[in-house]
Design the sequence.
């Protein structure tokens, strides 16, 4: 139904963003809402997945078609719902997730909120060998040796917003406090705090 929505960012919160387009505000759930933080009236494009069930209708948004495609693949795995799929994508380490699936690395996959051994095994059974057509253009080094994980920048923003976003993804207070303790001396943007925190929690 929807492919993308292009407009200006009206609101950014721990769980969702609001994109204003022609006087209509679209509430969109995203893996890391603070990725879409923009200054002024700069337009952004959010690729949309329209999720509909008997008890819910929601929009999920991503910064690229590839992320949207991976989200869709994850939803097809028994035991993974939209919230779980968002938590996996929020790490900013999609490349590592796909590598874990290809390498049958259950220990890495169970580190995500809501992913137990059974679900991790199901992810591997359902998705192994089925992501290469999505990933190469997005992460060209994924299936080559020496692929690198993302790097972080050094910007000034608010750690509290990042902790709220982590809680919205399903991480416990104990886990978020662990991340906060390690990052409290850093001076980063909210987006980078989230990425760094997730990197720490997935170690």
Sequence:
């Amino acid at each position: 139904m929807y492919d993308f929505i292009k407009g200006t960012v009206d609101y950014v919160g721990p769980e969702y963003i609001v994109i204003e387009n022609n006087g209509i505000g679209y509430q969109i759930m995203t893996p890391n809402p603070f990725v879409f933080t923009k200054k002024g009236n700069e337009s952004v494009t959010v690729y949309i997945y329209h999720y509909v069930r008997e008890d819910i209708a929601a929009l999920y948004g991503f910064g690229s078609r590839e992320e949207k495609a991976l989200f869709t693949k994850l939803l097809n795995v028994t035991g993974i719902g939209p919230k779980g799929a968002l938590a996996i994508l929020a790490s900013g380490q999609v490349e590592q997730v796909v590598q874990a699936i290809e390498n049958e690395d259950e220990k890495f996959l169970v580190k995500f909120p809501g992913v137990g051994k059974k679900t991790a095994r199901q992810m591997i059974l359902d998705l192994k060998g089925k992501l290469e057509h999505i990933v190469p253009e997005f992460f060209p080094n994924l299936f080559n040796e020496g692929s690198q994980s993302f790097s972080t920048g050094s910007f000034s923003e608010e750690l509290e917003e990042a902790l709220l976003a982590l809680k919205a993804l399903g991480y416990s207070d104990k886990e978020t406090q662990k991340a906060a303790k390690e990052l409290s001396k850093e001076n980063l943007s909210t987006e980078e705090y989230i990425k760094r925190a997730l990197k720490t929690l997935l170690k």
